[in-house]
Automatic annotation (TrEMBL):
This is Porin P. Pfam families: Porin_O_P (PF07396). It comes from Pirellulimonas nuda. Keywords: Signal. The keyword Signal applies. Residues 1-18 form the signal peptide. Transmembrane segments: none annotated. The keyword Signal applies. It comes from the Bacteria.
Length: 473
């Protein structure tokens, strides 16, 4: 009825326009039909006004011509959106290219007993890391990160390669790909922000990078973080894992107990990881905080000898728990962790290990390492003035004690050579001096004194001098 009224009203209007002044040349007396039509015109006008009001309040009834539909913004219905429309707006995807390198020089001085146990540790000059990465967003809530290392054994090796989906179903953020598993404060600190050249000895227990899926988020106004991940275990340097076995999980939770002015913080955290290694074999070993030090299940040959080594164990599972305590006060930071690990061997015995570290640092030039709430770690300090005509840059001193005890009477390594002394306990005293020339350039100097106690061998010592040049962009 409304549409027929509209059509009639438009027809009458058109007729009136068509018979306008140019055609009205003589007076005319309306007939009965024309008088009736004239009486109907006010009713049609009222119906048109009422129909317009209803259409204004019913967006879902509008059908927009695709030729003139908007290419961004809110589409009223699926029928309104032409091919290629971007309801989220323009500007995606985005990309930022980053990179950094670590150029290291390492010098060893061993006593005779140490050289007899671990072999001749020769001086090394190499690129510890040389990485290129790309990161960005493909939508408002989907980001990506891809990083590859050209100094690791794979040349290049897969580092962090993942996609993040933010606020999925309002329960947290989801990460899929290869990433650092959420376990340990030292392990979760970026290598570009480490206080020393390498992480502390107990990070040999961390499962580190694996391929899988992670759910993580912050809570309590970013005073707390939580993360849980499931993954294939172990993942090789190319981001691959295969086989009917080989799975693991890890979780880490942190709480910022105090967050005061002038970088006054107090941090508490903890984590747990459970792993069933593919092929039922596991190795725990470490160098004295130079070269490669994280847990290795892939039998990769490294240039620095391992001072402690369990050998290849026939393992049903491998699990570790840890606790974290850290705090800062202005330019001073203190951080400590304790780890306890077990390996259930297929011969029915359980091997138990433990390790810990404590470290302190102080920025002599007054800058401080900020606490990164969304990660539950401390970041890098940035000099107030760059080195050059403006100033001397930023200077930091640091000290650390760490130990890793892999001694256990029930170790049963598979295929160990004759005379192999499985396990060992290693203690390191490390002193560091860091010179940050500007926000992106740093020189680090470490002196390490290592105390080694290997079963069936004498206690031995080694002194190590190490230096690093780091540039990142």
């Amino acid at each position: 009825m409304r549409l027929s009224g509209m059509v009639m009203r438009f027809a009458v209007s058109a007729a009136a326009f068509a018979t306008g002044p140019t055609l009205a040349v003589s007076p005319h007396t309306p007939g009965p039909a024309e008088a009736a039509e004239a009486r109907r015109l006010p009713d049609l006008d009222a119906q048109l006004v009422a129909g317009s009001a209803q259409l204004e309040g019913a967006d879902d009834l509008l059908i927009v011509d695709p030729e003139v539909a908007p290419t961004s913004g809110h589409c009223l219905t699926w029928r309104c959106c032409p091919p290629g429309a971007d309801p989220a707006g323009a500007g995606y995807p985005t990309v930022t290219v980053n990179g950094f390198f670590h150029a290291d020089a390492i010098f060893f001085a061993q006593d005779a007993a140490n050289a007899a146990v671990v072999g001749d540790a020769q001086d090394v000059a190499d690129f510890r890391r040389a990485r290129l990465s790309a990161k960005g967003e493909v939508a408002e809530n989907v980001s990506y990160f891809m990083e590859y290392d050209f100094a690791f054994p794979g040349r290049p090796s897969f580092m962090d390669v993942y996609v993040d989906v933010a606020d999925l179903a309002s329960i947290g953020n989801v990460r899929i790909g290869q990433f650092r598993t959420p376990f340990g404060m030292d392990a979760m600190t970026s290598v570009k922000e480490l206080t020393f050249l390498e992480r502390a000895l107990p990070t040999a227990f961390a499962p580190f990078r694996q391929i899988g899926i992670e759910l993580y988020d912050t809570a309590l106004d970013e005073r707390a973080t939580w993360a849980v991940a499931g993954y294939r275990f172990p993942t090789n340097v190319f981001g691959n894992a295969s086989g009917d076995s080989g799975y693991g999980c890890a979780t880490r939770e942190t709480l910022l107990l105090y967050d005061g002015p002038c970088n006054h913080t107090l941090h508490l955290g903890g984590g747990f990881t459970y792993n069933q290694p593919s092929g039922n074999s596991a190795i725990l070993r470490s160098t004295p905080e130079v070269g490669f030090s994280q847990l290795d299940f892939n039998s990769t040959v490294f240039p620095v000898p391992f001072f402690v080594d369990t050998g290849t164990l026939a393992a049903e599972n491998f699990q570790v728990m840890n606790v974290e305590l850290a705090g800062s006060r202005g330019p001073a930071v203190a951080q400590a962790e304790f780890y306890f690990a077990t390996i259930d061997q297929l011969n029915g015995t359980q091997a138990r290990f433990h390790g810990a570290y404590a470290q302190v640092s102080y920025v002599l030039t007054g800058e401080y390492r900020p606490y990164l709430k969304n990660q539950g770690v401390y970041g890098r300090f940035t000099p107030h003035t760059n080195y050059g005509k403006a100033g001397i840059g930023g200077w930091e001193i640091a000290g650390r004690y760490s130990y890793l005890d892999l001694n256990d009477a029930d170790l049963a390594p598979v295929g160990a050579p004759p005379g192999f002394a499985a396990g060992g306990a290693l203690q390191d005293l490390t002193f560091g001096l860091n010179w940050r020339l500007n926000a992106n350039t740093e020189f680090q100097f470490n002196y390490i004194h290592a105390f080694l106690d290997r079963p069936a061998g004498d206690n031995s010592d080694a002194d190590i001098l190490a230096a690093r040049a780091q540039v990142d962009f």
